[in-house]
């Protein structure tokens, strides 16, 4: 894998996604999800809301990088709040 430019930040990002997926799998086994309607325009499960939060977070990061020179950490903090809102109220 020497052809790839891996950094500790990249490894931490993919590790966090892997841990989140493992936690979601454990939660699904422990407490099976129920379809519910929140502020999103369609009924969703826990996995649906997680996927939507990942897609939205990617869009926020891309827009942040395109629109500002501010540190990306601010976008990440914004995305944590966004993901929390989607998971809780979506």
Brief description of this entry?
With 90 residues, the protein is mostly helical.
Walk me through what this model shows.
The chain has 90 residues and is mainly alpha-helical. The chain folds into two domains: 1-32; 34-90, no CATH class. Helices cover 70% and strands 0% of the residues. It is built from three helices and no strands. Helix 2 runs antiparallel to helix 3 (72-89). The termini are far apart. The mean pLDDT is 91.
Q: SSE string, helix = H, strand = E? A: HHH
Count of domain modules: 2
The structure class reads mainly alpha
**Which overall shape is indicated by the principal axes computed on the Cα atoms?**
flat
Q: Report low-confidence residues grouped into runs of 5 or more.
A: none
The helix fraction, in percent, is: over 70%
Task: Determine the number of helices (DSSP H or I, runs of at least 4 residues).
Answer: 3
Task: List the SSEs and their pairings.
Layout: H1 8-30, H2 46-67, H3 72-89
Structural features:
90 residues; mainly alpha
């Amino acid at each position: 894998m020497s052809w790839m430019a891996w950094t500790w930040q990249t490894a931490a990002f993919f590790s966090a996604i892997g841990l989140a997926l493992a936690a979601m799998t454990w939660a699904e086994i422990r407490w099976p999800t129920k379809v519910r309607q929140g502020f999103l325009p369609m009924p969703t499960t826990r996995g649906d809301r997680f996927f939507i939060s990942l897609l939205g977070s990617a869009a926020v990061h891309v827009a942040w990088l395109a629109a500002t020179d501010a540190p990306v950490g601010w976008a990440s903090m914004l995305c944590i709040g966004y993901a929390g809102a989607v998971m809780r109220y979506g």
